[in-house]
Amino acid sequence: MSEQTDGELGRYLRARRAAVTPGELGLPVGSGTRRTPGLRREELAALAGVSIDYYIRLERGKETRPSPPVLDALARALRLDAEETAYLRDLAQQAARGARADPRPAASRTVRPTLLRLLESVRPCPAYVIGPTNDVLAANPSGLHLMPGMADWPAKQRNTIRYTFLHPYARRLWPDWETKARACVAHLRAVVGTMPDTPDMVALVGELVVKSPDFSRMWERYDVRKVGYGQKTFVHPDVGTITLSNEVLEVVKPQDLRLVVYSAEPGTPDHDAIVLLDMKGAGALGEPSAPETPTRPEAPEIDADATSDR
Q1: Which residues contact 161 (CB under 8 A, 6 or more apart)?
Q2: Fold of 113-300
Q3: Residue 51's pLDDT band (boundaries 50, 70, 90)?
């Protein structure tokens, strides 16, 4: 990905600088119209205790080895939280490595048998295993059919972020699609900080920037947030509106996978709904109903061997 160069650190600093207003930091706002939103370069440099010349060089990619104290000072001045500060440090390390960094190989798509057994053991709860860039590598019946139409895509195309932005049913599945989509992008940004140049990441971001104006807009915000536990509401064509709790469990290396499990309190309508979804996904009540959409999603070009399900 061409943007993942020494200049990426500067782009992140500019985006975060634009997101902070002088009033938030107790600085005088002054009169007249500011040419740029947020903090001026000289204001941020003063708050961080560095010279304006040094900061300009840093933002323009001319200075690629900021010290940890400088990064910490910038993080405090920009009011970055722990995840955003970690991302800043990751970008600084990438800038220091520069062209000497060796590209990483594509992530493995192999899911070990113990994880496959776990997917079966949590049924009827929807569950799936995803890779670093949110490729769905394995799923139980309700997990695959929780996102209507995902099962119609070839195995190598199944990706929860691609689904969120490119599948025509996605905007009806999540009542607050904008919040859901921004969380997806913020998570992908967090992953970029640790694995910027893998072929999977390059291909996914490039595809979404081209095909989705919404993704492109959100990508430029440079929000950083890893997705964790919480609750999500779905408006599902087969089982109606359901609200499920979800847990995201990290799988130990070398694969860097995550196990995502949705659940509901037994005896509740939401739990009854996932039982029905599991039965539909397994074919016990016939084939899952197709999403109510007049067109099929635009599919990226894939290899011929990607048409078989895992």
Answers
A1: 133, 134, 184, 185, 188, 204, 208
A2: Beta-Lactamase (3.30.450)
A3: very high
Which residue type, as a one-letter code, is found at position 136?
V
What is the rounded distance in angstroms from the CA atom of residue 227 to the CA atom of residue 64?
29
Topology at the third CATH level for domain 7-100: 434 Repressor (Amino-terminal Domain) (1.10.260)
Query: What residue ranges do the domains of the chain occupy?
Result: 7-100, 113-300
Cα separation, 165 vs 212, in Å, equals 7
Question: pTM higher than 0.85, yes or no?
Answer: no
61-69, long-range: CB < 8 A, 24+ apart: 61/5, 61/6, 61/7, 61/9, 61/10, 61/95, 64/6, 64/9, 64/95, 64/96, 64/98, 65/92, 65/95, 65/96, 66/92
- C-alpha dihedral over 110, 113, 114, 115, to 10 degrees? 40
Q: Tokens for 94? A: 């990438």
Give the per-residue pLDDT at 1: 40
Most confident of 20-24, 127-131, 190-194, 297-301: 127-131
Q: Is the peptide bond before 254 cis (omega within 30 degrees of 0)?
A: yes
Note whether 162 and 301 are within 8 A (CB): no
Q: Coil, helix or strand for 233?
A: strand
What pLDDT digit, counting tens, does each position of 9-28 carry?
888 898 888 888 776 766 66
Element (H, E) at 129: strand 127-130
